[in-house]
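Methods — Computational structure assignment.
A single polypeptide chain was analysed. Its primary sequence is given first, followed by the predicted tertiary structure written as structure tokens.
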Amino acid sequence: MGADSVALLPSSLEQEGFSARRVVRIAIVLVAVGTIGELILRKSVPAAASLTVAGGVAIINFRSLEGLLQRVLQPGRPSFDRRSVLTIAGRLALLAGGFAALLLVPGVDFVAVAVGFSTLVVALIVEGLRWGAVGGG
């Protein structure tokens, strides 16, 4: 194997596969860019706050679901215990609280909320495309 063939191999970062941490980092960057865009372009603090809170709720729910799936769907003996049930209940309570806030808090920008929730979806798509480009699923 010569020096030319070594340059064609993917780096060790690209070999690690799908990364939930990278998804969260991408989502945080997208939320920050969206919030700054709301503040600069629309000059709307409630819209920026709506986007930030919705993006934060989406990221928290994603991380919680990731931990739950790792605990419950592990190979061998699954661990569906009281902690798993409480995690599910907490996720649902957080999501219900977020939706209740949408209805009760005046000045919520529903478009910004939709953009905030969709940042995680965009981050998942970006990571999936990156993973597919380096030979993943």
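Note: Confidence is low (pLDDT under 50) at residues 1-15.
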